[in-house]
Write a structure and sequence with these properties.
Blueprint (H helix, E strand, L loop, with lengths): L6 E7 L2 E7 L1 H78 L21 H43 L9 E4 L2 E4 L6 E4 L2 E4 L5 E3 L4 E9 L3 E9 L2 E11 L6 E2 L4 E5 L10 E7 L2 E3 L2 H4 L1
Antiparallel strand pairs: 1-2, 3-6, 4-5, 6-13, 7-12, 8-9, 8-11, 9-10, 10-12, 10-13, 13-14
Length: 292
């Protein structure tokens, strides 16, 4: 007979063994069955992982439901306590009413009564109305407190923004050479008013913003040389003049301490320094009060 098998398996050892021979059809069937079993096992593993994930979600959901049930139980207990207090007040009211109706020791008619009369309502209704009024009064008080807190929060926020707008600290490390106010002009020798302070520092020393704000001017001018002006909001502005170079452009937003440029001797000067001004609502003020 011809070779009618493709695969031969020999199982055993020495003289004791047996062979399994698979033909083409059997081999194909074996491979197909193996593939189907592999696919089924893969799908089963995926289903098991999916089921485990769903079990975890179900446990988490049960825990949340348990917490909510506990919260509802606490609320119910508080409600029961309140209802018990209401019942106690109603019972007390009934006893007082009974004492009032049976307060005549002689049992005869009471003399010397009078006044305006209104239809009598039941004690429970009166107590419910009393509780409603107390609740409304408490709710009104809480609303007033919330409104007061909101106003306080708004005032604190405005103060915070104002404090952030105020320039502070030295814009450059150096020595104060000319203060704010009247001085003798180094160019004409006549009395003049100096609108800022001059801080002497080596050329190239970093000049930093005295506070956060928006750059509203960054250009060269004949007298001030390279000048940068920062608007800090709330009416505050600072001026940095005679810079050797400018590091910001108009429209840039800068943080406190951010570099604006470097010390130089541009414009009308006798040597390298920073001319620094502080303006409040358009009026130049003494920058010395903001340096510390």
């Amino acid at each position: 007979m011809g070779n009618n098998h493709l695969i031969t398996f020999r199982v055993g050892y020495a003289g004791r063994h047996f062979e399994i021979r698979l033909g083409r059809t059997a081999a194909i069937a074996t491979v197909a069955v193996t593939a189907v079993v592999f696919v089924l096992l893969t799908q089963g593993i995926y289903d098991i992982r999916d089921n485990l994930s769903k079990i975890g979600e179900l446990r988490a959901l049960r825990a949340r439901v348990s917490d909510q049930n506990l919260a509802l139980h606490n609320l119910h207990a508080k409600f029961e306590g309140l209802m018990a207090e209401v019942d106690r007040l109603r019972s007390m009211n009934s006893r007082l009413k009974s004492l009032d109706e049976n307060g005549n020791p002689a049992g005869g008619p009471v003399s010397g009564v009078g006044g305006i009369e209104t239809p009598e309502t039941s004690a429970p209704v009166r107590l419910d109305r009393l509780l409603d009024r107390k609740f409304d009064r408490m709710k009104g008080d809480l609303l007033v407190e919330v409104e007061n807190l909101d106003r306080i929060g708004e005032r604190l926020e405005k103060r915070r923004l104002l404090l952030e707008s105020v320039p502070g600290g030295w814009p450059v490390r150096g020595v104060l050479s000319s203060s704010f106010g009247t001085r003798t002009s180094p160019f004409t020798g006549t009395p003049v008013f100096h609108h800022g302070v001059d801080i002497v520092a080596p050329t190239g020393t970093v000049v930093a913003a005295a506070g956060p704000g928006t750059v509203v001017k960054s250009r060269f001018e004949a007298l001030l040389g390279n000048v940068v002006v920062v608007d800090h909001g709330a009416g505050y502005r600072t001026v940095y003049a005679h810079l050797s170079e400018r590091k910001v452009e108009e429209g840039d937003f800068v943080e406190r301490g951010e570099e604006l440029g470097k010390v130089g001797a541009t414009g009308r000067v006798t040597g390298p320094h920073l001319h620094y001004e502080v303006c409040v609502d358009g009026l130049r003020v003494n920058p010395a009060r903001f340096l510390n």
